[in-house]
Design brief:
Blueprint (H helix, E strand, L loop, with lengths): L1 E5 L7 E5 L9 E11 L1 H7 L13 E2 L4 E8 L11 E4 L12 E5 L3 E3 L6 H5 L2 H14 L7 E4 L5 H12 L3 E6 L4 H7 L3 E4 L5 H4 L3 E6 L3 H7 L3 E9 L6 H6 L4 H21 L2 E4 L6 H12 L7 E6 L3 H9 L6 E5 L2
Parallel strand pairs: 9-10, 9-12, 10-11, 12-13, 13-14, 15-16
Antiparallel strand pairs: 1-2, 1-4, 3-5, 3-7, 3-16, 5-6, 6-8
Helix pairs in contact: 3-4
């Protein structure tokens, strides 16, 4: 089958190749890929930024979002059958959606929302699960709370704004001048144009911040949450809680503790909490999102679609950082 594989950790390390069809485990479903979402995470994996955490044996197929049709099922599979239209974020150890076929654990798969096309569905899993695990699972956002979501026009941002609004929160976001009105249409109550304003100077008293940018933005986010508030970072640095979550080795635990020491100390000084989130695959949570999507409460945003053969161009476009919502490659 055709696929895009990482041969070496480098910007130019991804190429098209013919690879064997994936093996199907007893609890797996084999999915013929109809569309695959393209994420900044794909670039980071390709460049080796997570090679200490995600130990892939090269060459490996890249890609973390998929929508497609089940073509085979393992003997232990229940609730899914050949012909089902599904979507998924494969488990972190079994990525590979930039391919014609992928085998996925049944627990990571959900039926595709009926109201979405394949391309739209492929834009949901990684961004949607990140938003869900941050706002629902970790922060337990409730009506009346104040939530700040950085980079509101990005893939995670567009989903998180809609989800936080559905949960009843007052939602603030940061974006560029051109996208101010657009993110308001997604549900943002307060929009800070980062080209002209410093969010830390105009926002205060927030319960939760979801940060996908890291660096200075993460550090300044600590100052806008109220005492006891929570800042969730998806761009790092990884913290001891994450090390425990993945059962990291002693060396990695020490490394993560050191990497996050500065931001954790700053959080303590401000009387707030910092938590690193590396989202995980979850079919049950995708089914929750499906319900919200088909009810019209949340909708994925697709910026551009590329043909499968142009996957390298799609990834380059994402790396520019200007996409509104998600970028998708299609195999129709």
């Amino acid at each position: 089958m055709k696929a895009f594989v990482v041969e070496r950790y480098h910007k130019d390390g991804l190429r098209a190749a013919d690879v064997p069809e994936p093996r199907l485990g007893d609890g797996d479903v084999l999915v013929r890929v109809r569309a695959a979402g393209v994420n900044p995470l794909d670039s980071k994996i390709r460049d080796g930024e997570f090679k200490l955490i995600l130990r892939y044996r090269r060459p490996f197929v890249l890609g973390n979002d998929v929508a497609g049709v089940v073509t085979r099922v393992g003997p232990a599979v229940r609730g899914l059958k050949v012909g089902d239209e599904v979507y998924a974020r494969p488990g972190k150890d079994r990525i590979g959606t930039f391919a014609q076929l992928i085998a996925i654990d049944q627990d990571d798969v959900a039926l595709k929302p009926a109201s979405l096309s394949m391309s739209e569905a492929a834009a949901v899993p990684l961004a949607g699960l990140t938003a869900w695990q941050a706002l629902v699972e970790r922060a337990n956002v409730t009506a009346g709370q104040k939530v700040l979501i950085h980079a509101g026009s990005g893939g995670v941002g567009t989903m998180a704004i809609q989800l936080a609004k559905h949960l009843g929160a007052t939602v603030a976001t940061t974006t560029s001048t051109a996208n101010v009105d657009w993110v308001k249409s997604l549900g943002a109550d307060i929009v800070v144009d980062y080209r002209h304003e410093d969010f830390a100077a105009v926002l205060s008293g927030y319960d939760v911040v979801l940060d996908s940018l890291g660096g200075e933005t993460l550090a300044k986010s600590l100052t806008v949450v109220k005492p006891g508030g929570l800042v969730i970072g998806v761009a790092g640095p990884p913290d001891p809680g994450f090390a425990k979550e993945i059962a990291a080795s002693a060396v990695l635990r020490v490394a993560m503790t050191l990497l996050s020491r500065r931001i954790r100390r700053q959080a303590k000084r401000w009387g707030v909490r910092y938590s690193f989130l590396f989202m995980r695959a979850s079919g049950p949570q995708l089914r929750e999102l499906t319900t919200l999507i088909d009810a019209g409460h949340v909708r994925p945003v697709v910026d551009r679609m590329f043909p499968f053969d142009a996957t390298l161009e799609a990834l380059a476009y994402v790396e520019q950082g200007h996409a509104k919502g998600k970028v998708v490659v299609t195999l129709d």
